[in-house]
């Protein structure tokens, strides 16, 4: 029995039921919180637990969830990406501009949008890996560049999007496409993180960068790839936003980076790196959407909604800090 196990009062052969409950609660706090919140809102208002409203919650969560899936890669690697909202905006704006003003085929414009996200992510990754800029600073700069280019391209005005882009925001057979895209991108993110060598490298580098380097892992490659993936997922989120609005908006996804980071942390990832999972991020994004949806149904002021979301984020980060302190003792 290890010292840590002795302190917690159990060993590998003598785990009590209470120990199992505590560990389950620690690992699945977001899921438990989501279930409790849904029960409370169902009691508070019958309008909450209805089919149309559940679909509405899914649509509201979709964009943030897709951004958060990409953000998960970065946070697992012990980084942070503040540029995802702006990258989503500039990617969707280029899709709209190349289609409306340059007459390019819709599929080509979409590929340009995704490539734009990858390029912005690569620039952030290169700054982090080779210029040794902290992820916070590198992506803060990229956030400003991306938002500025969005305004330059659009001249501060919305640009209409084509039918193929609008498909990302449509409803097919009663199922909103944003929800479908959220599920598809979630599956892709989960496969990357759990079943590929780059995913394993993310966990290794986030857990201990120096040990990873000594074991032969290309730390620089991993640092660049997490930001490239984050940029690609941000571009897809931008397509979903443009599809829902039938236009690319210069201020699209403004502030979404905070919700994306909050979703990842609420879902159980550690800001110190080496820990996180896509399923947890998904639950975190749904939890934030449920909070906003429930407060809207209860006619709570949007100003107070910001207060509540801020408190949820503060609690999630505090819980992560406390959990790391416990794990180190």
From TrEMBL:
UniProt-recorded Gene Ontology molecular function terms: transmembrane transporter activity
The major lineage groups are: Bacteria, Bacillati, Actinomycetota, Actinomycetes, Bifidobacteriales
One Pfam family name is BPD_transp_2
The highest taxon in the source lineage is Bacteria
Task: Tell me where it resides.
Answer: Cell membrane
Task: Extract the InterPro entries matched here.
Answer: ABC_transp_permease
Query: Which CDD domains does the entry link to?
Result: TM_PBP1_transp_AraH_like (cd06579)
The protein here is known as Inner-membrane translocator
Topology with respect to the bilayer: Multi-pass membrane protein
Q: Which UniProt keywords apply?
A: Cell membrane, Membrane, Transmembrane, Transmembrane helix
Give start-end ranges for the coiled-coil region(s): none
Gene Ontology CC: one annotated term: plasma membrane
- Which segments cross the bilayer? 30-50, 57-76, 82-100, 107-127, 133-153, 165-193, 224-242, 278-297, 303-322
